[in-house]
């Protein structure tokens, strides 16, 4: 990761969080995956790429294969289109965009409800840091080590791995086992047919 | 662990203030000697969830041939993040290992989503007709969803279940030595009556009451298994259901036609499992149409976690469902069929593995294998096989420890009679086969005694 040159005027994380949380409702609409209704994520992503590459006439620079992606990922791609409308991204190299849209969001997207990226402060910060990491710049005012450390602290994927090992899951298992023995649970409910 | 009654009627029907029909069904002088209480336990929020689910069924948008359903990546993501047993799983279905019944039976709590509200948790213990007994966890919504699922099937024939507290909507008829019986109501059907009854004369004050009670309430939908329906046809109550729904084992075409003629209604054969309830329905021999777009079916190689060639037979494997207490990813059902798309609808062809198995006692009366499973569940058996020969003698093999041959013989004698010859073989070694309970028999329907009226 390289530290941004002063001339680039890299926004700090707070500025990016603020920008992400201003995401207009149009970018949060239901993605259309089978040509029936909703937002064409494919068109939105390609418009963003054309703007950032300053090539307004490029015929579909990226094929995101919308039909193969989860709705959560398409929604996150739409939110990223808004995030990348920040003027900073027009000043930097655009070689990272294809990788970012095609592979950068697949793992994290299904783990977070789309609206949380723009409503929840921590998720907005995570998204800001995902984008900074993907484009190879540290947020304004942060060293590379600081940026990596702060990204870890909001990283959903890493956080889930930690939770997997926590006591909470065990406690819940014990509670389920206790309730399985209770009368109210064992009366069950109406059965309508034989299995 | 056996079911126990633990609720008041207010808790069983939080939204139903008018329970006069319930009292009438319970107190009717011709009624059975009910031995249990049950409700659907739907509150306002749960009822709304049933309504939302019913709406999704009405649109019935299935996946297309050679495609996976649109909801799959989101569903796998949800499972991965909220279900302990699925932590670290891939978001690509084919990269997920398959799941077997034994894995759930050992640790059902590991399959509960953290989104599930534990206050809503219900437990149902399966009798173990296709495996060892198992506690299945579920909630009132996934259970009550059975009715909209049935309604979506009936709607294709313009059959409608009436709503309101004037009629019995559904009667589950059993024909067993012993089973839970109750009168209940359906909140989803605005207080319509629900019955679960046993045709065994022991459950009634007078055998004749079985006819009088059924005829008096004339249920709109009769559900049961093929054995019960055979007995019901012989009993021949003057009832006119709108439909009959057979499940638990394959309905023979001859019996279907007999029932259709005798009761003058459509007769459906359901393929369903306790682990996920309804899967597919058949109106004609050999073709089971899938019912639920939110339950994805793969047909896999029995030994490897790979799909068989398109249209080939393999093990039916289930992903999805609406039960937050048991979300399934690639659950192997132990049943075999081929998957084919007919007029754009996914169907199971040549479904096998649920053929009825007939057992007779020394008086040549029918013995339901559910009763056998129930009786044997008191022993800690890892598995067993039971075969009855034409001369009614039994071959019984059991795997496990901590029980004596004489106690097993005693239990089987209570069911079949002391004069039945029994060859018993007990082994400590565990089975490696998928199905750890297997029933087989050389008896066929012509060996059955007519049901006493």
Task: Tell me what the structure shows.
The complex is a heterodimer of chains A (195) and B (453). With 195 residues, chain A is mainly α. Chain A has one domain (7-184). Chain A has ten helices and no strands. Chain B contains twelve helices and 20 strands. The model of chain B has no long low-confidence stretch (mean pLDDT 91). Chain B has helices at residues 9-12, 20-27, 44-59, 72-82, 101-106, 140-144, 146-155, 209-217, 226-235, 253-263, 369-376, 405-416; strands at 122-126, 134-138, 168-174, 182-186, 192-198, 221-224, 243-246, 266-273, 277-284, 287-290, 295-300, 313-320, 328-342, 345-352, 359-360, 366-367, 381-388, 394-400, 422-427, 437-441. The longest helix of chain B is centred in the first third of the chain and has 16 residues, at 44-59. Chain B folds into two domains: 9-352, ANL, N-terminal domain (Rossmann fold, 3-Layer(aba) Sandwich); 359-447, GMP Synthetase, Chain A, domain 3. In chain B, β7, α10 and β8 (266-273) form a beta-alpha-beta unit. Chain B is of the alpha/beta class. In chain B, the strands form four sheets. In chain B, strands 4-5-3-6-7-8-9-10-14-13-12-11 form a twelve-stranded mixed sheet, sandwiched between helices. A four-stranded mixed sheet of chain B has the order 19-18-17-20, with no helix packed on it. Chain B has a two-stranded antiparallel ribbon with strand order 1-2.
Which properties best describe this structure?
heterodimer; A: 195 residues; mainly alpha; 10 helices; disordered N terminus; B: 453 residues; alpha/beta; Rossmann fold; GMP Synthetase, Chain A, domain 3; 2 domains; twelve-stranded mixed beta sheet; four-stranded mixed beta sheet; 24% helix; 27% strand; globular
């Amino acid at each position: 990761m390289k530290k941004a040159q002063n001339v680039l005027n890299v926004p700090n994380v707070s500025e990016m969080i603020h920008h992400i949380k201003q995401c207009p409702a149009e970018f949060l609409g239901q993605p259309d995956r089978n040509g029936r209704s909703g937002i064409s994520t494919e068109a939105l992503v390609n418009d963003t790429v054309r703007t950032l590459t300053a090539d307004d006439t490029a015929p579909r620079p990226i094929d995101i294969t919308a039909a193969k992606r989860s709705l959560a990922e398409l929604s996150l791609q739409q939110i990223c289109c808004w995030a990348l409308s920040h003027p900073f991204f027009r000043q930097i190299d655009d070689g990272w965009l294809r990788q970012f849209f095609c592979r950068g969001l697949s793992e994290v997207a299904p783990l977070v409800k789309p609206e949380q990226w723009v409503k929840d402060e921590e998720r907005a910060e995570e998204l800001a840091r995902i984008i900074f990491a993907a484009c190879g710049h540290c947020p304004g005012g942060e060293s590379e080590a600081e940026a990596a450390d702060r990204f870890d602290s909001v990283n959903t994927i890493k956080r889930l791995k930690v939770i997997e090992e926590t006591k909470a899951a065990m406690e819940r298992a014990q509670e389920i086992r206790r309730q399985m023995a209770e009368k109210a649970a064992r009366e069950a409910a109406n059965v309508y047919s034989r299995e | 662990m056996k079911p126990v009654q633990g609720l008041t009627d207010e808790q069983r029907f939080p939204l139903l203030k008018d329970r006069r029909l319930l009292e009438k069904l319970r107190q009717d002088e011709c009624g059975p000697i009910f031995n249990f209480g049950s409700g659907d336990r739907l509150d306002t929020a749960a009822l709304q969830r049933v309504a939302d689910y019913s709406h999704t069924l009405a649109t019935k948008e299935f996946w297309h041939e050679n495609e996976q359903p649109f909801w799959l990546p989101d569903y796998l993501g949800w499972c991965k993040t909220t279900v302990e047993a699925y932590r670290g799983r891939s978001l690509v279905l084919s990269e997920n290992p398959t799941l077997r019944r034994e894995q759930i039976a050992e640790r059902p709590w590991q399959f509960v989503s953290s989104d599930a509200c534990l206050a809503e948790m219900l437990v149902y213990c399966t009798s173990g007709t296709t495996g060892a007994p198992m506690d299945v966890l579920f909630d009132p919504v996934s259970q009550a969803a059975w009715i909209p699922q049935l309604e979506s099937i009936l709607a294709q024939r313009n059959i409608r279940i009436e709503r309101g507290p004037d009629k019995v909507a559904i009667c589950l008829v059993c024909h067993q030595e012993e089973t839970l019986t109750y009168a209940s109501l359906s909140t989803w059907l605005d207080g319509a009556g629900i019955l679960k009854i046993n045709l065994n004369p022991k459950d009634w004050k007078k055998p004749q009451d079985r006819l009088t009670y059924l005829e008096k309430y004339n249920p709109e939908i009769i559900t049961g298994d093929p054995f019960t329906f055979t007995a019901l046809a012989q009993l021949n109550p003057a009832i006119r259901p709108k439909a009959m729904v057979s499940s638990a084992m394959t309905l023979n075409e001859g019996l279907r036609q007999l029932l259709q003629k005798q009761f003058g209604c459509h007769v459906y054969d359901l393929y369903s499992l306790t682990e996920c309830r309804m899967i597919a329905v058949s109106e004609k021999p050999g073709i089971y149409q899938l019912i639920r777009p939110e339950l994805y079916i793969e047909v896999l190689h029995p030994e490897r976690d790979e799909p068989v060639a398109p249209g080939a037979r393999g093990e039916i494997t289930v992903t999805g469902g609406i039960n937050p207490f048991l979300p399934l990813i690639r659950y192997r059902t132990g049943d075999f069929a081929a998957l084919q798309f007919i007029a754009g609808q996914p169907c199971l062809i040549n479904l096998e593995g649920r053929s009825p198995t007939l057992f007779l006692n020394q008086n040549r009366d029918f013995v339901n294998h559910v009763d056998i499973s129930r009786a044997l569940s008191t022993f800690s058996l890892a598995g067993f096989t039971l075969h009855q020969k034409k001369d009614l003698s039994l071959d019984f093999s059991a795997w496990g420890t901590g029980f004596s041959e004489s106690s097993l013989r005693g239990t089987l004698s209570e069911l079949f009679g002391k004069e039945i010859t029994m060859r018993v073989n007990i082994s400590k070694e565990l089975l490696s086969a998928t199905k750890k309970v297997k029933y087989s028999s050389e008896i066929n329907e012509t060996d059955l005694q007519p049901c006493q009226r």
